[in-house]
Automatic annotation (TrEMBL):
InterPro entries: Ankyrin_rpt-contain_sf, UPF0507/Ank_repeat_27, VPS9, VPS9_dom_sf
Sequence similarity: Belongs to the UPF0507 family.
One Gene Ontology MF term: guanyl-nucleotide exchange factor activity
Name of the protein in its database record: VPS9 domain-containing protein
PANTHER family listed in its UniProt record: ANKYRIN REPEAT DOMAIN-CONTAINING PROTEIN 27, DOMAIN PROTEIN, PUTATIVE (AFU_ORTHOLOGUE AFUA_1G09870)-RELATED
GO (cellular component) term, any one: plasma membrane
Domain VPS9: 319-479
Spans through the membrane: none
Any GO BP: early endosome to late endosome transport
Length: 1211
């Protein structure tokens, strides 16, 4: 390449070395890759090119330090490894779980690659297996002379080369995380059990399973005590368990100690397992195996002891006296934390304790699960519950919140009472007496906080203390603790029940009694007005949930002297972490919410209000997320809300308000919330923070009210109308899909909208979603479709055709029909644009080919190219699984629509005739073949005799040659223009990509990495918009040149035939003169007085009449001639027949030349006006595309500038 630098300076070099080596190589005929380039040129529609990034090729090297850019020109193997034969997949299959299509393709050098999940995986004949992500898909239109005119190639841009790829350390972070996750999952192993050993090692199963089966069988008499329901202490039950466990150990020991080959094999297996799993305790495995087989019997025996044990007052053992009964749980169901003498008083700390209690209850309730059948599992659950109670969940409270013994016992009472585990005593006994082998309480894998016997005993002793406090045997001088708790629970229940039933009279009596007793003094901490349920909800929360504003007002006003401002501020549901205002808004209690808002605004500071309104609940939602329920509240607190805070599903308050679709005043809600957002800010808003986890922007979320939101009219708003969500839907496509007609009408007016924007994965565009929406019309589920159809199709025609047309034809999308094995084109037709009457139908490409073929008979449009151009990329029987077929078909339809637009620039009469014929054809009322045969008969009927003179022929030749010269000059210009526009489109993409990569190296702009990785985007190539138009003009010009050449060829044949006829005529005249001379001499001899006959005259060369009769021609055949020499009479006849045949051919040529001349004259006249209008349309579309690109690019750069202001440069 170094030697050729001077030779390629004039060429428009492409930035990507691989593309430049294939499509812009000045040494294509002599380079090492010449055979590859020639093969690609000969079968250009069969290949797909894998294109590594330009920066990788320009900076990368192979193992021998050769630049990858040089390999593109000099290494044929490297080039062929990146060209896929996509017309014939090697293998097509479907993944069994994901149902994803797996397609294997061969490269040009016989290697195999697998296409799966948006990535390319190397396979057979590659030295190493790698996975490279497909970054983007593009179409490349060749502009060089050594490729067929207008040839198009599918490009797949990949993140790395398939050969000499980057080291693993340089692969993207995302790829690293993916691989790390796989390795982590592979290293994660589940806990080994003895049952696994028996299952995985047949030798162990063979020599032990039958013995264990006998040991655990119900006929084994040693299990009688465990099976029989009788009064036994837990120690006695454990003793029976140990007996069976000892026999299980004996079984294993006998197998190991056996003096046989089998014994050695068993010992070897155990030794191997111990070596591979050094942390596994084999004694514990055996214990748990016995525990698994005996648990049901042991557990039922323990339950029986407590169900039939003595009452605590009878003096029986504590282990068998059931204290925690369902009756006790019911009596204490309303017990509150403040009634257990907890020394903590601050409301925010009480919320923390309440939250821990709820978490511990959830954990301890796991003991009720049927799969908890191991002592180790029970210990882990209890340990986790204790950890939840003592854990420091809020760092800010780690130093302030100290859990002393009294507090811990109070918390544990709340957990035990509200978890309501009937057999908790049995669980505790099981933990005490059924530990591992050798000790009743050995632990193998305990909870991190229960990793020693002392801590476990401490935990169990705390549970014993709780059970003791809940029993009736701990009576003091007046009442036992449990009786005090039951009484407090009853007070709570009565008060809360009165609120729930909205019994205002009873509540008034209760509040008056409290007033009489305490006046305006502070209430005791254990008072029922300060009680909260297990979810941390106070009586105010219960009042809010009634939605009774009178009841709430009475409670709120009459308790104002007893309930402090801090208690109301920190009054939360500790399960959901919702404050009072959140609950009021969620319950849609608008009046109650207004009372709370006014209370806070009167008593709280600005900082406290902001903190309160923006505090998050369990789901990460603030008050702002609930404001969609109350327009009045929105106006009151909207200015305090941080609208950018995201909840756990990445939804901001603004997006949450926009999703409140069921409100009748939805538009007013949208208007108010956006007015507040714009008022809060004095800088440009990109609204990127409001994109949810599904990738939906605010434009996606809004169901209506787009005009009221001022997203398109406010100068502070910077929104992307073309942004796609995770399902690759633009707002416009989503509006079509969900029939949001109002928004659709507004967004179609936006100048920055890219109507032809495609999904980068499945390549669907808005026309596809329009077709999907049309399919719902037959079911009656899409009543808004006619209006959607009008909006979409009018925009479609304005994007692709000239304005002001009454009759329109367009092609929307295509699909492959496997039944007929041909392509079907979704065609749209209208002949009453004022009435918005559109007809849609799928028509096979074969029928369109026939229609075009028969319509091309019109003299004025014979300059249109041959119909075979329609079938070039829609081959009948073409496989329906080639790579990225949808993308190919979209590009083909762009060409078809560009060709179709040319009909609008013919004469009005021809347009009407063509559109009328298509209308009949569209409705299946048009018989193309019969019409074509009728036209042929008309031509034959008018095939009358026609004579052309030399002068007329010369005039025709002059006209054709002049036209030929004019069209050649025009064709030369069009070819150069098409090449230049193609190159300009490529250069536009390269310029955008390089600039984005420059920004990426200098800044930390979000989403810029994805944009910089895409080298070719359709939106960046407005010049590609006119390439189909220029190609059509080029083919039309070449068709005229072919027609001119055909006519000139016939003129040449006419002149040759005319010359031959003249020669034959001269020879005939010569023979006739000779005969006349001889005839006159004979007459003079016979009749000397006779007057000589005048000479024959043959003025008309085309005449075939006999100048002499046969009798007048002497027969000079000699006897000695032997037939070798024609007689004069025979020669005369022969010449006359030759002349007659020549005259017939000449007359046919006369007619053909005259007909073709007339058709050519008409077509050239039509072409002159056609090419001007058609090229004007192409230039208009080019200007519009450039304007769209500029608007789109201005938006991107403005957005980048806004983000740069908020992040430092990284230079």
């Amino acid at each position: 390449m170094a030697n050729g630098q001077n030779a390629i300076k004039h060429l428009p070099l492409l930035h990507n070395p691989l593309l430049n080596a294939i499509f812009n190589n000045p040494f294509h005929a002599t380079s090492p890759t010449k055979h590859t380039i020639r093969e690609i040129a000969e079968r250009h529609s069969d290949f797909t090119i894998l294109v590594p990034p330009s920066h990788v090729l320009r900076s990368g090297q192979d193992s021998s330090k050769r630049k990858l850019a040089d390999l593109c020109y000099n290494d044929d193997e490297f080039l062929r490894s990146h060209v896929i034969i996509s017309s014939a997949p090697f293998s097509v299959s479907t993944a069994p779980v994901s149902k994803a299509q797996l397609i294997i393709y061969n490269t040009m050098n016989g290697r195999q690659v697998l296409l799966r999940g948006g990535a390319i995986l190397t396979g057979k004949n590659f030295k190493s297996s790698i996975r490279v992500k497909i970054l983007s898909v593009a179409q490349f239109v060749s502009f060089c002379d050594y490729f067929p005119k207008g040839s198009r190639f599918l490009l797949l841009f990949i993140e790395d080369t398939l050969l000499h790829n980057l080291p693993q350390a340089q692969i993207t972070n995302t790829h690293d995380r993916r691989l790390a996750g796989i390795d982590l999952n592979m290293n994660q192993k589940h806990d080994i059990t003895f049952e696994d050993l028996l299952r995985n090692y047949p030798v162990l199963s063979k020599y032990m399973s039958h013995k264990f089966y006998t040991l655990f069988h119900h006929n084994n008499r040693k299990l009688d005590k465990l099976r029989t329901r009788q009064i036994m202490s837990p120690a006695e039950i454990a003793s029976e368990f140990r007996t069976i466990e000892s026999e299980a150990f004996a079984i294993i020991q006998d197998c190991v100690n056996s003096d046989s080959t089998d014994g050695d094999r068993v010992y070897t297996i155990f030794d191997s397992v111990a070596a591979k799993n050094p942390k596994v305790d084999m004694n514990q495995l055996i214990h748990e195996y016995v525990e698994l087989n005996l648990y049901d019997k042991v557990w039922l025996q323990l339950i029986f002891q407590y169900s039939s044990g003595p009452e605590p007052s009878s003096g029986g053992s504590l282990g068998q006296a059931k204290v925690l009964t369902s009756e006790l749980y019911k009596d204490l169901s309303c017990l509150s934390l403040n009634q257990l003498d907890i020394p903590v008083q601050d409301p925010w700390k009480l919320n923390v304790l309440q939250r821990r209690i709820t978490e511990a209850i959830t954990v301890l309730s796991k003991l009720l699960n049927s799969d908890v059948s191991k002592q180790r599992t029970k210990i882990a659950i209890i340990g986790e519950a204790i950890s939840a109670l003592t854990g420091k969940t809020e760092k800010s409270l780690q130093e302030d919140l100290v859990i002393d013994a009294d507090t811990f016992i109070g918390l544990l009472i709340m957990v035990v009472v509200h978890s309501k585990i009937n057999d908790l005593e049995a669980h505790l006994d099981y933990i005490r007496f059924f530990g591992g082998h050798g000790s009743g309480t050995e632990l193998s894998h305990p909870h991190p906080q229960t990793n020693n016997q002392g801590y476990l005993n401490y935990v169990l002793s705390n549970f014993d203390a709780v059970i003791y406090l809940l029993s009736s045997t701990n009576a003091t001088s007046e009442k036992s603790h449990v009786e005090n708790m039951i009484a407090a629970s009853a007070l709570n229940y009565n008060f809360w029940y009165a609120i729930k039933t909205e019994n205002i009279s009873e509540l008034t009596v209760v509040l008056e009694a409290v007033k009489r007793e305490f006046g305006d003094n502070e209430l005791p901490r254990s008072h029922f007005l300060k009680s909260k349920n297990i979810n941390g909800e106070s009586f105010l929360t219960s009042a809010i949930k009634t939605k009774n504003v009178n009841l709430f007002s009475i409670l709120f006003e009459q308790t104002s002297s007893w309930i402090s401002f801090e208690e109301i501020m920190f009054d939360r549901n500790t399960t959901s972490d919702q404050n009072l205002l959140m609950i009021a808004l969620q319950e849609e209690a608008s009046e109650i919410a207004s009372v709370l808002i006014h209370f806070f605004q009167e008593n709280a500071t600005e900082e406290e209000l902001v903190s309160y309104y923006n505090s998050c609940d369990k789901h990460g939602r603030t008050v702002g997320h609930y404001l969609s329920h109350d327009l009045v509240a929105l106006k009151l607190v909207g200015s305090y809300i941080n609208w950018d805070i995201k909840d756990n599903i990445l939804q901001t308050p603004l997006a949450a308000v926009c999703r409140c679709y069921d409100r009748a005043d939805y538009k007013e809600l949208i208007k108010q919330v956006f007015a507040i957002v714009f008022e809060q800010n004095d800088r440009v808003l990109t609204f990127d923070n409001h994109i949810d986890k599904a990738g939906n922007s605010l434009l996606h979320v809004l169901a209506k009210g787009l005009l009221e939101s001022e997203l398109f009219s406010n100068s502070l708003a910077l929104v992307d109308v073309n942004q796609m969500n995770n399902k690759q839907l633009t707002p416009m496509s989503l509006y079509v899909r969900y029939s949001r007609t109002e928004n659709l009408e507004i967004i179609l007016r936006q100048k920055s909208l890219v109507f032809a924007m495609e999904d980068p994965k499945l390549f669907y565009n808005v026309l596809d979603y329009y077709s999907f929406s049309a399919s719902k019309l037959s079911t009656g589920s899409n009543g808004d479709f006619p209006f959607i159809q009008s909006l979409i199709l009018q925009r479609f025609f304005s994007e692709n055709f000239s304005a002001g047309l009454e009759k329109k034809i367009g092609f929307l999308n295509s699909r492959f029909d496997s039944n007929s094995n041909e392509w079907l084109i979704n065609s749209i037709f209208t002949d009453r644009i004022s009435e918005l009457s559109f007809k849609s139908k799928y028509i096979s490409i074969e029928k369109l080919y026939q229609f075009y073929h028969y319509q091309k008979r019109l003299p004025a449009i014979i300059f249109f190219p041959h119909p075979s151009v329609l079938l070039e990329y829609f081959m009948k029987g073409k496989s329906s699984v080639p790579m990225y077929l949808k993308f190919r078909m979209n590009r083909n339809l762009e060409y078809l629509n560009a060709f179709l637009a040319s009909l609008n620039y013919l004469d009005e009469a021809i347009q009407n005739e063509t559109f009328d014929a298509f209308s009949q054809f569209f409705l299946d009322h048009h018989d193309l073949k019969s019409d074509f045969f009728k036209w042929n008969r008309d031509i034959e009927h008018h095939n009358i005799e026609c004579k052309l003179t030399h002068t007329q022929i010369s005039e025709i030749v002059y006209f054709v040659e002049y036209s030929l010269d004019d069209v050649r000059k025009y064709l030369h210009i069009i070819k150069k223009l098409r090449k230049l526009t193609t190159v300009c489109g490529l250069k536009q993409c390269e310029q955008r990509n390089l600039f984005d990569r420059l920004l990426l190296t200098m800044t930390n702009i979000r989403n810029l990495e994805e944009s910089a990785s895409i080298e070719y985007r359709n939106v960046d190539r407005p010049y590609a918009r006119i390439e189909p138009f220029l190609l059509w003009l080029e083919m039309c010009s070449e068709e005229i040149l072919r027609n001119c050449g055909s006519l000139l060829n016939k003129v040449t044949r006419w002149r040759t035939s005319y010359s031959k006829i003249k020669e034959l005529n001269n020879e005939l005249h010569h023979i006739e003169q000779q005969i006349m001379v001889v005839s006159d001499s004979n007459k003079k001899l016979q009749q000397p007085e006779a007057i000589a006959s005048p000479p024959l005259s043959r003025q008309n060369s085309l005449s075939v009449d006999l100048a002499l009769t046969e009798s007048e021609i002497p027969d000079d055949t000699s006897f000695f001639n032997f037939g070798l020499v024609d007689s004069k009479r025979a020669r005369y006849k022969k010449l006359l027949l030759l002349k007659a045949d020549g005259v017939k051919r000449l007359m046919d040529l006369n007619y053909e030349i005259k007909l073709e001349h007339e058709q050519l004259a008409a077509s050239i006249s039509q072409f002159i006006s056609f090419r001007t209008g058609y090229l004007t349309l192409a230039l208009k579309l080019l200007v519009n595309s450039n304007l769209n690109l500029l608007r789109y690019r201005v938006f991107e750069l403005t957005k980048y500038r806004t983000e740069i202001w908020s992040c430092p440069l990284s230079i």
